[in-house]
User: Fold this.
Amino acid sequence: MESSDRDLKKNWKLQQRQLARAAFPVADQLLESLFDSVESNVDVHGCDHSLRFTTQWISEHEQPEQPILEWLAAHGGHCDCEVVTNAADHWEQNC
Assistant:
């Protein structure tokens, strides 16, 4: 791969990361708190294949439910354990 091709690829990856960050439904600190809380609850109580811990966190922190749930679902977070694995992974790769 030539230097110009590497630069193009690097710029494209940076653009993709910036687009992903711009789509985060809330600030990084809040997403980190959400993922930490849900993970702790799943570790203790297990996953019942719902979003009960996720929606509980959203309610307790008075955050906008629909945009957060839509973003989580778009990144594979259809239940609490998937929020912790799939959506958190997407966030970590782009924060």
Summary: The chain has a mean pLDDT of 93. The chain has one domain: 3-94. The CA atoms of residues 29 and 35 lie 10 Å apart. DSSP finds five helices and no strands in the chain.
